[in-house]
Description:
The protein is an alpha+beta fold. 33% of the residues lie in helices and 30% in strands. The protein has two domains: 6-134 and 299-322; 143-292, Gcn5-related N-acetyltransferase (GNAT) (Aminopeptidase), CATH 3.40.630.
Amino acid sequence: MVLGPRIRILQSAQALTEVRPVWESLISAQQNTIFQNFELNSLAAQSFAGREEPFVVCAEASHGAAIIPAAVRQDGSLGLLGEELFDYRCFLHQGDPEILRAAFARLAQLGRPLEVKALRKNDSALNEELPLIPFCCAPSVLCQSTSADDFAAAHSRFGRNLRRLARLGFELHRHRGDFPGLVRFIYRKKAAQNPDSLFRDPARIEFMVQAAALLRDRFEIFTLEDEASIAAALVVLREDDCRRFYTGWFSPELEQHSPALSLIYEVTRQSLAEGLDCDYMTGEQPYKLRLATGAVPLYRVYATAEQLAALSQEPLTELTLAA
Length: 323
């Protein structure tokens, strides 16, 4: 008898620890972003369990392994862990694509549709079976497209803005993520500034505070500040060869000096000088396009339970439920 893959279902943050070795082996084999970090996903599973119930599928066989970090949302549909706060989603997979198909087939047994956004094209191994639907783009500035000096020359106005802010007493500072008071300050101020902000939800602010402390060396907080106040702040997610610009905020009292865009400019210039690419992340807002030299297309996936079930005919020989 031919045995199919071993399937495990993880339905809590605590249960996720059972598959941590597999998870970390898969992300080490792929080019993933910080949003696939195990600790960050485990924190999301714990923080948002009341609004998206984890249903993580781990499939293993001799010909590969796959993890779908799924969650059942409040409307009954399926998404991936991270609530509204993860910009880039991904199915973790190594080996024969059939192992990923088997994981989807197990997910299909819930009888629910799956919607995922935003995926980068190279992050989806089953593009033909799960077609990618254009979603938006992520503007970027890459080292291969410009140098720090050329970038500064092209945007000299922002250099002048920085010098003007310096005369007012505002200097550039960089902090690690383990500065909970600063992280909480930024997100509370951002929520107050925009009635549509995701961070009007206190649970999301606390998630960011905990995430920054958990991954303190990968969260960088850049500020323009004097002894008494902050003109602008930028929360950046640091990866080996890239800075991802996650959240920006500025003081409205200093809007005439463009402190937020000036800060983004300066962090971009310094990153290029350090040999780091800059990802301005999901959305093509005008302020991003003003500085960007390129953009990465992002996609969404939508599949019914029937489409998920049709991906694999391989038998599932073992099921371990872990809650």
